[in-house]
Amino acid sequence: MGGQYGVWSVGRVLVPVLGAVLGVALCVGIGIWNDYRDAIIDTQKQQMLLTVQSLGEGMEVFIRGYGEDLEEIYQMARRVCAGRALGGPASGDGEEKALWDGLREYVDTHSAFVDDVIVEKAKGEVVGSTKGTGVRQEYSSSRIDGQKSLGMAEMDNGEMCLILKKEIVGEGAFSIVLSLERYYQNLVRGLQVGTNGYMVLKDRDGIILMHPERAQWGIEVIGGRMEMYEGLDLESLRRMIGHQKEGQAGVDEYYSYWWTKEGYPRVHKISAYCPVQVGEDFLILSAVMDYDDIYIPVAKGVLRLVLLFLAFFLVMVAMAWYIVRMFLQKQRDTEQIAYLTELNRLLEEMHRSEEAIAHQQRLQIMGTMTGGIAHEFNNLLTPIMGYADLLLLELDEGSDSYDSALEIYEASAKAKEMIQQISSLSRKNMETAYKDMEGTRVLSRALKMVRSVCPSNIRLEEEVNLGGAHILCNETQMNQVILNICVNAIHAIDRREGRIRIRAWVAGRDDLEKLDPASCHLFPVLENWNRYIGIEIRDNGCGMGRETMNQIFDPFFTTKKGGKGTGLGLALVEQIISSHKGGLFVESEPGKGSAFSLYLPVNEQGEGQLGAGTGLAEEEGRKGRENLRILVVDDNPKVLRLLEKDAVRLKISLECRMGFEEAREALQGEGDGGKTAEGGQGGKARAGKEGTGFDALVAEQEIAGQSGVDFCMSLQGKYPGMVMIVMADRVTRELVEAKQRRFVDAYIDKPVSLSSILGALKESLNDL
Fold this sequence. Notes:
Elements: H1 2-81, H2 94-109, E1 114-120, E2 126-129, E3 135-143, E4 148-155, E5 160-168, E6 172-179, H3 180-188, E7 198-203, E8 208-210, H4 223-228, H5 235-244, E9 250-257, E10 266-278, E11 281-290, H6 292-394, H7 400-424, E12 435-438, H8 439-453, E13 458-464, E14 470-473, H9 475-493, E15 498-508, H10 509-513, E16 520-521, E17 531-539, H11 546-549, H12 569-579, E18 583-589, E19 593-601, H13 604-608, E20 629-633, H14 637-650, E21 653-657, H15 660-668, E22 675-676, E23 696-700, E24 702-703, E25 706-707, H16 708-714, E26 723-728, H17 733-740, E27 746-749, H18 754-767
Parallel strand pairs: 13-15, 20-21, 20-23, 23-26, 26-27
Antiparallel strand pairs: 1-2, 1-6, 3-4, 4-5, 5-6, 7-8, 7-11, 9-10, 10-11, 12-14, 15-17, 16-18, 17-19, 18-19, 21-22, 24-25
Helix pairs in contact: 1-2, 1-6, 6-7, 6-14, 8-9, 9-12
């Protein structure tokens, strides 16, 4: 019962599917049939046109040949007559008799088509003919040239003929009479054009010269038929005749009648026609064929193919039904196996998912640990670097102990760089880790990578003049920006000899305002920075037009062929420059190369820190430090002890707190006073502190999950004269924007020393 139900269910699905397939096949078949029918009919039309053109060329040769004979007859008559009038055939003149004998011989020799030669006087009076026939009625005349013409006429004996005449003004005329009926029977009638088709010859005025219906010879193709066959619709025929009278070859479909059949049945016809040139004029030769002579054989052939297809389709349906029944029979046996297979697959996927989740968790733990490890190492390095700095100040430079202390300081500085590199591996910080770096150093490292990929046919030119300017950047991302642009330049030059010129300089705000806004991207508000580092990368490659330039920063847009480019390089460049608050300027011209100009804001804070924290306390500016009072907030007691010792040495009043709430109480004068380094009086009497005597607040970037930037922001407006500095494990975008918006006055990298704090404080006071 279940098997029968399954067969019925599959049948309910299969029948509509087969019906849909049959419907699609029917639509496709109709389209194929229409294309095939049109192709066959067009081919037949072309064959008909070629047949008509071939016959027309033969007719032109035929008329041209007898025209040459007519010219020879005329020249012979002139030699015989020598200006005298011609007599009749019975003339006694021996030379004239010889002429007529020659004419009769010509007629006898060409009797296949020539019936007679007629000679006329100057006024049109007939002198005679070789057989004594005359013209009863002329129906048509076509001009060959100024002397010769070709006409159709009915002779005295009732035969329709072509009259090829040469007429000389003042001398007379000679005519060759050509039998139209013999020409039609011998050369035209035998051509088979379909079942009922035929050939028709007309002059350019539509007078029928040849037609299978003898009664139509000599009548006008439209007017004559309207008189002969009243009540017939000849409008379609009239349009087709109009096309023929234009003197061009072509093929038309139209509706007419079979004039040779009883009752004149109306039919759909095809006519292929071409002009037959007779000198200055032309005749119209056409082949007429029944449209059904082409269509019906094609339809029968296609019908046989359709029947064959249906038989094949029925066989396929039967086979499909048999296969379905076999499938249903096996389905019950395979369901259990399929279920177990699916269950096994799900278990394997679950196992892989658990491994992937565990791996992601390990990565997250490693990322979290990386930030924590960097923070702890910075805390450990602070006393190492600080005490080494103190030793360097106390020891003689030439002693072994001085060299040992210097080695300790340099080793700890290298350890600091390693910690910063490890911190950059944290996924959380990868995109937001910025570092104050000298522009020349960043560019030199990037150019080193460019040289490694630059082929031998490209010359790399460098002109770097940054004068020690600093930028706040992610060095890895900046390397990627310069490398991406240079690789694009290499591809633009390709295998030709070329050059890439890299120029770097410091630009002012006025220089940026002169740039063309249509070619600039991503510029922030200019008043935020006074100076920019400009980097120009110019090549002499293939260049690009304005339309391409408008799309180069769109993701996945590329001009490289063969899958060599992803279209993400310049989109990534735009994103990185945007995150660095910089701008792009692009100029290019096809065939002349391209130039990409990068503008990155100069980090004035970084330049101010040059020389701070190097281990040599500056003697300059020592004057007045005795009056400084600084509040330091850090959760590491070792760091605080180091700073306190340094403050005693430099005679600076320093108070330390290990939490933000304790620092807030100290600022409000509610704390226990904390630990104050001896060395001078505080600045409580200073104006502008509004209840606090601290000149500066130096806060850890993060303590117990609380942000030092947020703590500084909470103090905004309460102590307007106090400088706020953040000690950073890593420079983040949040910290940079906080400084730009004056939420904090400065930030310094850890490990820190009192010298670096004083340098930042001095720079901040100068800015104020």
